[in-house]
Amino acid sequence: MEEAVRQPAGAALLRVLAFTTSISVMSATMFNIALPVIANDFGLSLTQVSWVASAFLLVYAVGTAAYGRLADSCSLKHLIAFGLVVFALGSLIGLIAQHYWAILLGRVLQAAGAAVIPAISEIIPARYYPPESRGRAFGIVMTGLAIGSAFGPAAAALVMSVLDWQWLFCMPLFTLLTLPFYCKHLNDKPTKSGGIDWAGGGLFAAATALLLLAVTNASWGYAGGFVVLFALFLRRIRTAREPFIDPGLLRNKPYVSGLALMFVTTGIGFALVFLSPQLLANVNRLDPGLIGFALVPAAVATALLGRLGGALADRKGHAVLYNLASALLTIGFVMLSTFAGMSPVLIAVALIFSNLGQSFLFIALSIAVSRTLPQEQTGVGMGLLSMLSFIASSFAAGVYAGIVDRGAGAAWNPANAHPEAAVYSNIYLALAVLHLLLMLGRHVKAARSS
Hints:
The protein is mainly alpha-helical. The protein has helices spanning 8-42, 46-49, 51-70, 76-96, 100-114, 116-128, 134-162, 179-185, 198-217, 220-239, 253-282, 288-316, 318-339, 344-370, 378-406, 422-449.
């Protein structure tokens, strides 16, 4: 496989990977537009209906780590073939579902299959591209993510203006078109033998679900269940022959620091894709179609400029790209906090800064984390990175939904004069401050180490 990426097929493989990634992102983000409609159809609160996003992301997260673990002992083409078929099966179930539980089942199956896509999207650049060119490889993958984000809202708007929202489940079927190409060009061999600790994975998934329930429902009972299951999980990975997460990875301090930073920043960034549609629907009273088109400019800008971020990281280093990303995100969140409740055009402009910053941040942190891993641990290591990113998104969806449901007692941003948008404005302002603190913390750490 290392030799393959130096040939023309390597560039073509990245392009197909970017296409598959874009379809996966479209499937994940399209439903954010539909959440208000789904809530109305089934008589649910935003917190309840947020499980359409949270359940998908939770399974997506654990599945990504599982596929990353299997990628060290199984052929990538077999893994992606299995994943894409399950992805399509979940889509068919969701398409014909008549009850909310069946909708959730379809989304869970979709996530169980689609999780293979972010896993291989992280593994291929990290495993088969040298450090000096990984920025370009991650940039191409990021372009696929951005294209999916760009077309996802527009496609959702188009579908929902003509058909019922359940037709959004059809999008993943297009990924089946890529299977022949993957089967032809992915001729990799496993880097080591071994299986996967499904019991450990199950404990981790259950503990994560309980933690999410504890956060979204403010329940000490769920929190206690999480503590018990997580303790059992820690014991399991110390005793299992093939642990779900290698304890040795957790002793790699630079790697763990990168994971923690990716977790926090991903949770912050999820506000862009989760809260923005809710703001435009509940405050600006836009129809789903108009919401989709309001989100398109930011995603288009990210698609056009995403590869530039990768090139900048290759030339100047990922630290420079991180600082640029943090600056863009801080500016974008301050603008969102100020413009909440105003013209959707202003929201669209603010999202350009924010989305571009988030994409640059993904590239910078992916490069940084990949450089902390030995070759034989890239599969599980990068899979774990993707898993924690999606878990962060799942937590963030529940937390943000709970805050919005409770509302705001006061407006924190004096420049925002729209009380009905106060809760959104407050969240965006708090996230801007968090990014500033993270950036300052990195500068202080770098100064002390030098």
